[in-house]
Amino acid sequence: MDAAGPRHYPDKPAKVYLFGTCLIDMFCPEAGMDALRLLEREGIEVLFPADQTCCGQPAHSSGFPEQARAVALAQLQLFPEAWPVIVPSGSCAGTMRHHYPEMFADDPRLRAQANALAERVFELSEFLVHVAKVSLADQGVPARVALHTSCAARREMGTHEHGRALLAQLGAVEVVMHEHESECCGFGGTFSLKHPAISSAMAGDKVDALKETGAETFLSADCGCMLSLNHTLQKRRDGFQGQHLATFLWQRTSGEGGRQ
Amino acid sequence: MNNSQQLNFVPASEFKQRASVAVADAHLRKSFRGAMDFLISKRAGQFPNPEALERQRSLAEHIRKYSLARLPELLEQLEHKLTDNGVQVHWAEDGEEACAIIVGIAQRHSTKLMVKGKSMVSEEVELNHAMAAAGIDALESDMGEYIVQLDGEKPSHIIMPAIHKTKEQIARLFADKVPGAGYTESVDELIGIGRAVLREKFMNAEVGLSGVNFAVAETGTLCLVENEGNGRMCTTVPDVHIAITGIEKVVEKLEHVPPLFGLLTRSATGQAITTYFNMISGPRKPGEKDGPGEMHLVLVDNGRTQAYGDEQLRSTLQCIRCGACMNHCPVYTRIGGHAYGTTYPGPIGEIISPHMLGLNATHVLPTASSLCGACGEVCPVRIPIPELLVRLREEAQHDARPGHAALRGQGAAKSRLVDAIWSGWAALYTRPALYRAFGWLATRFRALTPPMQGGWTVSRTPMKPAARTLHELMAARKKR
Amino acid sequence: MSARANILQRLRAAPQGRVPLAPAVPAFYDAIRAATPASTRTARIELFCEKMAFWHGEVVRVTHDNWPQKLREICAAKGVRSLLYGEASAHAEALKAAGIAGLKPYDRPVGEWKKELFDDTDAGLTSTRGGIAETGTLIIWPDANEPRLMSLVPPIHFALLDADQLHDTLFDAMCAQRWSESMPTNALLVSGPSKTADIQVTLAYGAHGPKELVVLLLDNELSEVSEVNEVNAEEGP
Lengths: 260, 480, 237
Hints:
The structure holds 3 protein chains of 3 kinds.
Chain A: E1 15-18, H1 22-27, H2 29-41, E2 45-47, H3 57-62, H4 65-76, E3 85-87, H5 90-103, H6 108-120, E4 121-123, H7 124-130, E5 143-148, H8 151-157, H9 159-168, E6 173-176, H10 191-194, H11 196-212, E7 217-220, H12 223-235, E8 242-244, H13 245-253
Parallel strand pairs in A: 1-2, 1-3, 3-4, 5-6, 5-7, 7-8
Helix pairs in contact in A: 2-13, 5-6, 5-8, 7-9, 11-12
Chain B: H1 3-6, H2 12-23, H3 26-46, H4 50-69, H5 71-84, E1 87-92, H6 95-108, E2 113-116, H7 120-124, H8 127-133, E3 137-140, H9 143-150, H10 167-177, H11 187-204, E4 207-210, E5 214-216, E6 221-226, H12 230-236, E7 240-246, E8 250-251, H13 257-269, E9 276-280, E10 294-300, H14 304-308, H15 324-327, H16 330-335, H17 346-357, H18 359-362, H19 374-378, H20 385-397, H21 416-429, H22 432-444, H23 470-479
Helix pairs in contact in B: 3-13, 17-20
Chain C: H1 3-13, H2 25-35, H3 41-54, E1 58-62, H4 67-78, E2 83-85, H5 92-97, E3 103-105, H6 114-119, E4 123-127, E5 130-132, E6 137-140, E7 156-162, E8 166-167, H7 170-176, E9 186-190, E10 195-196, E11 204-205, E12 212-218, H8 220-235
Parallel strand pairs in C: 1-12, 2-3, 2-4, 4-7, 5-8, 7-12
Antiparallel strand pairs in C: 5-6, 6-9, 10-11
């Protein structure tokens, strides 16, 4: 649920900005490209400001607000026009939408800028459902998938509902619920480095639950969770792997089902 | 600081070690998971209507914020009313003072045995140690607390102290430690054994001790919430009743109690109400035939005024101790209550222990969270627990913010290396050209990615950059 | 300086933002009442019985006239050998007239007969100030005549509850009975017999207090109903 109450959604715009996030940039750029493809297919022009880096969340949640603010400030200037800013990650979107205004609370000018930006920030699946109002035509073979929604995406952006709504449009896809569906996967950014034993236990339980559903793959709209779970599975030499939701949606609806 | 607090000192390394042991204990994992799942579903059953729940939470949050905003005057009003009602009110700045007051009262009455109702504050101030040092038996009478004490342990949950134990373990414990008790795994029979032992103790104890759930200023009433009846025994049978509570538990009016009480029991154990709600406004009056002849209230600070001194951290004191945050916490569910090493485990413990014990001893606790937000989502009084965790992480690694008083142990986790890492991180991520160059290098030399990546690779394969960054793919697309 | 002065001084030195307005608790309950169908006497009775049963309390529907006989029957069935009561209670005469075996007045300070109270008293009978339908709860204000331990120490607790004294919620009861004007030394809410789930989250009754709670729900409208039924029966074919 959005803390500010039910969100008012604008009409479909001609252009959007894409904020790719640092994790997607370095570790799963295809997810970013698939987000781009999904948006362009809706006839929306996608602007990718080349100076974008990271939303600042890692420093913010680690107790380094000054560094977080510096990095956030560098992003704040990158989206000068009134187009929506699309983020293919619920937790980065949550940072920009909910934490930027707090980070700049002491500076009226920046605070106003942060507020204005926050209003325009949309998590990708939220945008596809409520603003672009996509209708997806499934071209894939019958498939069974599980969905893991990151905690920030769920609690700050309501992404679990948007992801589910998109998948419901795919006729041949069955979405199965896993045990403790709303529970954290143990990633938590620097938490996974600081408390590896606890984080591993959480990740292990999550992959067990996802696998128990009998799904062929699991999906997530957040690269952090997805990478953490995929690397956990790889360490176990388990072939079960997750995909970014954007990639899965594109593959199912573009006739590129076989692409890796 | 004083001895009673030293006992709670848990160095960072020790927390991690205990957590590692706990997650490797399949039995412990299974019992906590089962119990927490049970409590989660019981709570959910009490709140079928999300909008109605939000209205209740809003009211409860409002009542707690209002009470805290007026805390000093409400404490004075409470003291005044209680004194009028014949209750002696004491103030303690820390655990040592609280224990000294209670030991003093007990000694004046030549006490050999003190029976205790459930009181987390008495655990917090290490009262049992102080009583033992004074040669007085302090016997826990809540069934869970009794079991835990009998085994020389501490509670692992604030509402269900013995949740980490199976009935087989308790059966063995009773057979070994309770004179005359045989081995039985029947829960009814085990409770019967405890009942028989403890009823004898209630009769013979000179002093009864209890906690307080709500203290009502306008009437001078102490409210106790319980299912077992041991709290009523402790506050009624012995000649002297001593109640101990944190200074934050006061509310202004009796009418402020029902909304908080209703949320407390529903959030804690999924009960609409507990068996007993015991409202005590004074000792036995002339002509009355039972109830304590003498009654005391000990108001304990023990770091609460530090939290109160900061407007954001103050919300910590809104807590009504329902335990829902730990029931829903994925970390608590994995490691149980003992790994934290503090009286209050789980999310509430992570945000309140630093005030009681200082950041020196506790700075690792606020980091033991993935910030998933489950705690804040269920908190009946809407304490923004994740935000407070982030704030305490900051305070542990920096000097006090300008214009803010330093917390006890301020900057305890400061590290030049960590500072340098984050400064370097910020330098990179605020310089787009440098950042892109870094991305270019990292992808080109991905084969050189270190195979060991600290905590990450304990149970995961190493992170490896993609062949090209998104920045590069986007740039290539433009040229196309 | 004293601990008291230090604590209050620290609290007063803390930055104070805007003090929130006093919480509008009555308005909160008014809104709930406005959004739900009006409660009726019958609905309150039914809800109370349902909730009390959920807490493992027994509710026996009786009239103001027949309750002593009913109590005598229940005591006999449960093998009650001694029943504690208050000598000055309004119901004392009716109780004595019913010929219940082992009536025992709580007529001395507890210190003089603690052992007998704990070890040799089977049941206690108390009156109540009313009940709460929403949660299946008894409101009990112990006093010199019916002391605190009557409802706690004996293994069976009998409670007389007037059906006309049922309130919808705790808040309603608190307001209607104007508690805040004169709280007694001890006021109690009791919802079922003593219980615990401290061993493996398994419910067990009779943890420290009563193992059984029997509510004698006094309702003269019930007698009208049953009398009508009896008349009809007599007039039957």
